[in-house]
Structures are given as C-alpha cells and as structure tokens.
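It would be a great kindness if you could assist me with a short task in structural biology. The matter concerns a single protein, recorded as an amino acid sequence and a row of backbone structure tokens. The record follows directly beneath this note:
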Amino acid sequence: MNVPHIRIEIDDIGKVPAVYIDGKLIKHLIGVHVDWNTADQDGIKLNSYGIETVGDNGTQQGCGQQAYSKL
C-alpha cells in the first residue's frame, strides 16, 4: 500500500490551512481532521486523519487513514 506524505500548515486558526499531499498543494479544501494520541494506560491508541476537497469536476473527494495499535 502506498501511503501519502501529508503536511498541514496552520498559520492562523481562523484561516484555511495549507495542506500538501506528496508535495502538491491541495486546492478547494473543505475540511481537515487530525486525531493523534499517545497510548492510554492500557497501551491502546487510535490515530486518524481525513482530508476533504472539491475536485476539478465539482464533486466532493476525500482521503484518510486510521491506525489502531496496542503496545
């Protein structure tokens, strides 16, 4: 599985962040969700991200990933 390199730049929390996937700036951003945590007391952690955009043809598109692990 080819996992993309994601970079999110937030300069001002009130403005749209710059999101890059594999070095390419994503345009027409609708939403970004990142949930990253250290493991809890039982060694369990669940991390995820989701990125939603409007494509060139006007349809909503998205990508994301979720990882669950027990240490």
Remarks:
- The radius of gyration is 14 Å.
- The first strand starts at residue 6 and ends at 9.
